Amino acid sequence: MSLTQERPASPGRLLAGWGRTAASRAQVTGPLPLHRLQALVAAGPARGMLARGAGSSYGDAAQNAGGSVLAPVSAPHLELDTAAGTVRAAGSTAVTQLLDACVPHGLLLPVLPATRHVTLGGAVATDVHGKNQRADGSLGSWIEEIELLDGTGGVRRLAPGSEEFRATVGGLGLTGVILSVTLRLLRIRSGLLTVTSRRHADLDALLAAMDTARDRYCVAWVDTSAAGRSLGRGILESGDHLAGPDPATEAGGLAYRPPRSRRAPRLPVCPLTPWSVREFNGLHFRAAPQDESSLTDLAGFFHRLDAIEAWNRLPGPRGFVHYQFVVPDGAPGLLAGVLETVQRHRCPSFLGTLHRFGVEGTGQLSFAQPGWALAMDLPAGARRLGPMLAELDLRLATAGGRVNLAQDSRLGPGACAAMYPGLAAWREVAGRLDPAGVFQSDLSRRTGLR
Question: Average pLDDT for residues 317-333, to the nearest whole number?
Answer without folding.
Answer: 95
